[in-house]
Amino acid sequence: MKIPDPLDINRCGIRILSDKVILAAIDAGFISIDPKIDFSLEKNRLQPSTLDVKLDYVDEFISRRNNSVLFNEDELILPAHSECVLNLTEKISFEGFGDYNHKFIFPSVEGRSSVRRPGGYVLYMGNTFIDAGSRSQIELGNYSCNNIVFEKNERIGQVFFKIDPFLDKYYFNYEDKKLVEIMDFARSLEMGVEINSDDELKSIVAEKYLDISPSVISKNGFIAVRASDKAYRMKKLEDSLVFSKRDEYSNDDLLEPIDISNGYKIMPKEHIIIETIESFDLSSHVGIRFWDNLLGNVLGNINISAVDLFKNIDLINLSDGWIDPGYVGGFSRQPKWNSPRFVRPGDIIGYGQVFFYPKGTKNMYGDKILDSQYNNKREIAFSN
Question: What sign for the dihedral angle of Cα 352, 358, 360, 361?
């Protein structure tokens, strides 16, 4: 099987920009950031495949069930089991083709791993990057039993830059010289492409771009990860969980082990963390985006009633984690469902969408410049 080529016009699949070219797209004006980020001072904002975004202030609370909601100039208290719209410190816009006003770069957002572990998640399949007023916005939920305190200017999310390098070929008169010039530039940008078959996945594993232990289980190019027998429940704290002080919490402070060896019934809004059987060793050529409750998998479960499906509509196709190129270590999942859910060791608890970068990324997870947090950690950890 031939190694996948992002510039094969006949292949399906999402493409995303690598860190090698995100700044070039910004300099060319196709990604606009206001106010501008000084990347010489904020080197860790640009990750191998994403741009980290920071909290500015809250625009509105989607769920107002808790009267203790607070936000001031310095911090946000995100109550347990609530959601809100957050304004970011910058407005990030995606420009079109001048008179054409058609975009070929599109945003998608995911919560940083440090946000997801205590219970945070981004709503609606990562399609919640909103261009509103003077700031861009994302919608962030808190699935845990604890209030989470976020301070202003903390990195809470990461933006992927999806790109369609053949927009002109599909929809426009590609003999237009200006359009050809723009799209030729788009095609010059180094990008990763989605793996969309099991045979392609086998090829990149065989070429040592990716190693998954103890074995690879896949479906249509998506990697399935399975529950081990190690699982934990988030403890209810007396006070809020302070995000900026997460290094000071031990696992014993936050987690209590639970026995799932004979099956475990996860109750609604119960924040459970399960270590996977699989561990990963990624080269600079591979990144993996994880999803929970993929639609086909949910609808294929004959035990899902129409009522339960309606209760969980916001959690279907939930964007739920990104592993950067270069990551080495174990992995964990935080399955979310608003109805009782059973889990046993060996059950599939997430699917990984694999992206392949033919020329690799500039930086890799674990590089000192990136302030990576969890590399080479074989067990769950909330601290760096």
Answer: negative
**DSSP 8-class letter at 114:** H
Mean pLDDT by 10 residues, the chain (384 residues): 84 91 89 91 90 82 51 75 87 70 82 91 78 82 92 92 84 67 87 93 93 91 94 94 90 94 92 95 95 74 74 84 93 91 92 94 74 48 42
Are 9 and 169 in contact by the 8 Å Cβ rule? The answer is yes
Q: What is the pTM of this model?
A: 0.89
Q: What is the DSSP string of 157-169?
A: EEEEEEE-TTHHH
Residue 159's beta-bridge partner residues? Answer: 51, 109
Q: Which helix (H) or strand (E) holds 115?
A: helix 113-116
Residue 159 has φ and ψ, to the nearest 5°, of -105, 130
9 by Cβ neighbours in 10 Å (0-12 / 13-18 / 19+) ranks as: exposed
| DSSP string covering 203-224 | HHHHTTSEEEES---EETTEEE
Distance CA 68, CA 70 (A): 6
